[in-house]
Structures are given as structure tokens and as C-alpha cells.
């Protein structure tokens, strides 16, 4: 199982469920998450989507072991389910709440650009490791993070490949609330229940009006990022970083 789905009082909870791999995204998990988001959008009985992770990580990002294998065998050039998940996030018609229970790396951080509310455990940390991997940003983060955090905060996160702790993430504006680890899910769920008590038609109208102003920017940034990523993927810096990752394993 890669994704657990549960419903309670119009709140659909999606739990990334690869704790042994720190909930790193494989092609299977990208597809499962995209499908679940699309289904939540279409389900009239779902008012709010709550996304979290199982175990000690929110998500360690892209599964680099799988990524390296796909680059080596040439299958990576044949496409990925990653864009499908990003489209599902951008098109989600219901409010999205993220409960960051542990480390968020790569897409485990950039996915927060699509969230309407982000709750973060006080022990969680975030990192965008793109420059340390010799690649470019992803998931329209080069557009969404400056919008969310301000240009300089986003620039540091995207350029440095350094960790950002929960307190700093809150100061920067990528986390709305910081919670004690044992209170994270309950706090996120209490706020989800407040939203779920409102008419779904009104929630979707608010979500639609907020999201509409970002659609063109997301599309443009995605095109730019994809071109840069494709140019750098498999290059000298990227190959060296992946080789170093393999040696550490």
C-alpha cells in the first residue's frame, strides 16, 4: 500500500504510506495521489482534503533510487506520473490542508505551495535539494513559493538546498501553524472540521476564485522548470549527485 484514504465528516484524509522509505514518491505513489485528488474533487460528499504522512516523515521527495534506475535504463525519458499529480493539485476543487508530520524534502516541500493551510510539527524540517542534486525546481515552486513566502525567503529555500526548521518555516510564511507533534493531526483536523461544516458549494467557489489567479503563473512556471530540468537531468552535476547518493546507501 502506498496511500491510505479515509473519510470522516466530509473530510477525506490521504496518508502517504511508505514509512520504510520516508514516504518518498515513486511513480506508483504519484499516480495514486493524483487519482485520489481527482476523486476528491469530483465527490460531492467531500468538503476538505487533508494530506499527511505515516511515520517520521511527511515525504522525503522523489524516490532517488527509482529515479536513478529509470535514468539508467532510459525509461525516465518516456514520461512520469509526476505531472499528473501536479495537475491534480492545481485543479483540486476542495480546500487542501497539509499536516507536515516530519521531514519534507523536494516535492515534500513544494507540494505545500498548493495547500490552502499548512500545519507543521515543531520537530519537522523542510528542504528543497535541487541545487545539491544538480537540477532545477519543480512543481511550479519557482512561482508559487515566492508568492507564498516572498522572493528572498523562496530564493534561499530554492537556491541553498539547506534545511529550514518549523519555526523558520512559520516565519517565512510556508507554514500557517506550528504544533506539538502529538497535537498536529488533531489540530489540523479541528480546522478541517470547521471548513467541512460550511456549504461545499461555497467552499469550492472560494477555492476556485483563489486558484484562478494563479493558473497562468503555474502553467508558465511549469513549462520553464520542465525545460530546465530536462536540460540538467543526467548531466554531470546530477550524475555525480546521484552517484554519491548511491554510495551513501
TrEMBL record:
Alphabetical list of Gene3D superfamilies matching this protein: 2-enoyl-CoA Hydratase, Chain A, domain 1
InterPro entries named among the record's database cross-references: ClpP/crotonase-like_dom_sf (IPR029045), ECH/Chromodomain_protein (IPR051053), Enoyl-CoA_hydra/iso (IPR001753)
Entry-linked Pfam families: ECH_1
Keyword Isomerase on entry: yes
Main location as per UniProt: other
SUPFAM superfamilies: ClpP/crotonase (SSF52096)
Lineage: superkingdom: Bacteria
UniProt keyword Isomerase, yes or no: yes
Any one GO molecular-function label of the UniProt entry: delta(3)-delta(2)-enoyl-CoA isomerase activity
UniProt KW keywords: Isomerase, Peroxisome
Compartments, as annotated in UniProt: Peroxisome
Protein name as catalogued: Crotonase
Amino acid at each position: 500500500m502506498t496511500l491510505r484514504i479515509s473519510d470522516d465528516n466530509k473530510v477525506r484524509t490521504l496518508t502517504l504510506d511508505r514509512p520504510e522509505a520516508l514516504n518518498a514518491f515513486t511513480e506508483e505513489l504519484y499516480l495514486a495521489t493524483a487519482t485520489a485528488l481527482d476523486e476528491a474533487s469530483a465527490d460531492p460528499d467531500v468538503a476538505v482534503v487533508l494530506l499527511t504522512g505515516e511515520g517520521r516523515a511527511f515525504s522525503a521527495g522523489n524516490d532517488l533510487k527509482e529515479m536513478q534506475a529509470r535514468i539508467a535504463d532510459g525509461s525516465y525519458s518516456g514520461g512520469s506520473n509526476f505531472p499528473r499529480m501536479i495537475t491534480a493539485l492545481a485543479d483540486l476543487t476542495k480546500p487542501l490542508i497539509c499536516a507536515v508530520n516530519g521531514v519534507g524534502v523536494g516535492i515534500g516541500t513544494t507540494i505545500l505551495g498548493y495547500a490552502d493551510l499548512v500545519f507543521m510539527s515543531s520537530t519537522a524540517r523542510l528542504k528543497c535539494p535541487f541545487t545539491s542534486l544538480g537540477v532545477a525546481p519543480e512543481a511550479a515552486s519557482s512561482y508559487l513559493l515566492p508568492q507564498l513566502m516572498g522572493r528572498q525567503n523562496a530564493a534561499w529555500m530554492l537556491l541553498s538546498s539547506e534545511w529550514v526548521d518549523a519555526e523558520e518555516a512559520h516565519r517565512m510564511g510556508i507554514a500557517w501553524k506550528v504544533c506539538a507533534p502529538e497535537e498536529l493531526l488533531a489540530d489540523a483536523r479541528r480546522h478541517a472540521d470547521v471548513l467541512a461544516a460550511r456549504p461545499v458549494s461555497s467552499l469550492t467557489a472560494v477555492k476556485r476564485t483563489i486558484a484562478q489567479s494563479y493558473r497562468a503563473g503555474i502553467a508558465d512556471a511549469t513549462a520553464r522548470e520542465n525545460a530546465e530540468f530536462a536540460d540538467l537531468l543526467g548531466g554531470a552535476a546530477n550524475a555525480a549527485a546521484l552517484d554519491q547518493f548511491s554510495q551513501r546507501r
